[in-house]
Amino acid sequence: MAKYDYDLFVIGGGSGGVRAARMSAGYGARVALCEERYMGGTCVNVGCIPKKLLVYGAHYAEDFEEAAGFGWSVPKAKFDWKLLIANKDKEITRLNGIYRDLLENAGVRVLDGRGSLLDAHTVALGEERFTAEYILVATGGWPAVPDAHGSEHAITSNEAFFLEELPTRVLIVGGGYIAVEFAGIFRGLGCQVTQIYRGPLFMRGFDDDARRFLADEMRKKGVDLRYNTTGERIDKTGDGLRMTLNDGSTITADIILCATGRNPNTAGLGLEELGVKLNWRGGIVVDELYRSSAPSIYALGDVIDKVALTPVALAEGMAVAKTLFGGEPTEVDYGNIATTVFSQPPLGTVGLTEEAARTHHGEVTIYKSTFTALKHTLSGSGEKTLMKLIVDKRTDVVVGVHMVGPEAGEIIQGIAIALKCGATKAQFDATIGIHPTSAEEFVTMRTPEPEPAQAAAD
To answer: In the chain, what are the domain boundaries?
Structure first.
């Protein structure tokens, strides 16, 4: 008779937890998974997927305007927010079902409810108890809202996907992925958008040239972007929500979206009672094989506070399954992970920023190009595109690639393969481009940027 009810019990039905459960079952393990909210986790329900659908919807405003330059007479467009949200919800419901079917078809038992740990091998789900040789915590993250006067009046990205009405005036607090993406969405749909950020330049961690370029493009599109600005309090008035800023001025909006980060979702799981080590943000500390300080408890995805990206969680889920049940201890390679911010225009990146490259490689060569895409020679749009290559001068290896412009995500995905293979600038140069495309610029840049000291002297 088996010692435990299951070989693996997964708490959390997001991308990483589902992948680990499915793959583990494929290796013959007895697996159960519980989810308290919605199958697919943040990405499917209040993250990547609905966000990208709203980005598509918002961009049609520009498409209609730009069509005139190509000979199209487009009648005045009318937008229906409720219809977009209803169609989005329909697609998300379909995906929820697909995730559940994938698990059940793989032989995973799916349970609805919030799981918590009673001991290193026991999960409580309501009044039920389940034992497992291994427990995997994949509970993701949850939006963080600063504790300030009136903060209960603000919403987070979770609620933004379900607004009943499209607001006229939107105030966004924050300077990361979520803040920038929603600024583009609401502005594209015709809202008056103000975005405030506490630092001197948003998108911290990205290449500085790309950050500055994106800010310029967003301002050109009408986003009121304010740096070194924080909100001190929110008051509900007859005219909406009034935020008082650190300089004493105020902004009144219909909604205030707080996008100031997400914290690991570990509260109430019983981890601390079991001695599972957490970091200062509440993230579960794991080793290279995703094992916590309790040998039978593993964790992955946003809850380990490492790289909060869906494809990373998927890779971690596969690694856990291989390690525990495939006889192949597996670590994830976090080098050269490509990512895109679906801002308008989007920002895509892979590899090191210029600052990081100078720190890690010493001397680097920078290639940079700013241009108007062919489409916009007729569209009438003033949108520009930025492309940047960072090359290790000693080895000629390309160590960083950055882009702000249409289809940045699609283009950078291909470039990421080249960086993963250790491509050199000479190999980029030897690659024949596809003409006419924006992407060809990455293989035609020949003139390096002046060194910083030289540029300052000039």
So the answer is: 6-142+263-325, 151-260, 339-446
